[in-house]
Predict the 3D structure of the following.
Amino acid sequence: MTIAVKFFASLREQVGTGEVELMPEQARSVAEVWSQATADQPMPANTLMAVNMDYVDAAHPVTDGDEVAFFPPVTGG
Amino acid sequence: MRIEVRDNLFDPFAEVSRYQQQHLPAGKYGATAVFVGSMRDFNQGDAVQQMTLEHYPGMTENYLRKIGEEAASRWDIIDSLIIHRVGEIRPDEPIVVVAVWSAHRGDAFEASRYLMEELKARAPFWKKETLHNGSRWVEKNTPAS
C-alpha cells in the first residue's frame, strides 16, 4: 500500500500539486511526509495537518494506508 | 441533524422552512435560531467580484457532523441543520445556513452560535477571492465580535 498525501488551497498552489503518493518506508511522521512530498520545501508556520481526516500535529506517526493532508488556516462560513 | 455541502445556489429560508415541516415534531419546539452567512462584495477595502470556496471532501462533512453532535450534547436542542456552499459564488449569494430548533430560545441561540463559530474555526473550507486585478486566498477569519 501507500501513504496518500493531499494539499489544499494556497498550499496546493505553493507545492504545485494536490496529491502525492509515498511508499510507507519513506516517512514515519507527518513532518517527514511533508519533507518527502515537497522535496524539503519550508512548511509555512500556520500549516494545519490531518491524518485520516482528523487534526494532528507534525510529530504524529503515519502508517501504511494513511491519508495525510496539509492545508492553510480554514476560512469557511 | 442534517449536514450538507452543496455546489449550487440555494435559498436558505426555504431550506429551513422545508426541513422544519418535514423533520420537526409539531408543537414540541418553541425556538428556531437561524444564521445565514452571505457573500459580501467587499473585503479588506477591496471590491470582490467572485469567490471560490474549496473544501476537503469527507473531512469537512465529518467535522460538521462532529460539531453538530457536540452542540447536541451541550445544549438541550431538538434538531439542527447546516448547509454550506462550495464552488463559484457571487456577491449576495448565501454561503452557509445554520438552524437550531429547541424548546426554548436560550439553547437555540447558544447552540447556533457554537455551530457557527466552530464551523469557522475547524471545518476545512477555504475562500479565494477574485478582484478586478487578480485573485487572493482569504488568510484568516474576521473576528466574531
